Predict the 3D structure of the following.
Amino acid sequence: MNQKQFAIYAALVCAMMGAVVGYGVSKGNALLPAIAFSIGVVLIALGKRGVKEVMEDERTQRISEKASRRTYEVFVGGAALAGTTLIALNKHIEAGYTLAFSACALLILYIIFYGYYNRKNLE
């Protein structure tokens, strides 16, 4: 399978996942979307293994790392600022706490992963 075929395959799997998730949500069934998502992730991962071409190189991976880090920094900072502002203004307090706790959870996850990768030998 080449990259173009994989892209079509992944799009079809995503379309089927979307249909199943939409059906499950409309019927009020929470288990169906979870199963569809899990199966879709596995199918896409298996399809990606069948691609014989190089899908990404070191430059693409490095750009992805930088983009991920900036996205994380912007979201955590924005969520913390928005959450504390909403809490301080006594408006939408539940949403404020949700944003603040999300920022805290992401910081904790970052610390855990940073410690893990710091100890691990990165080729």
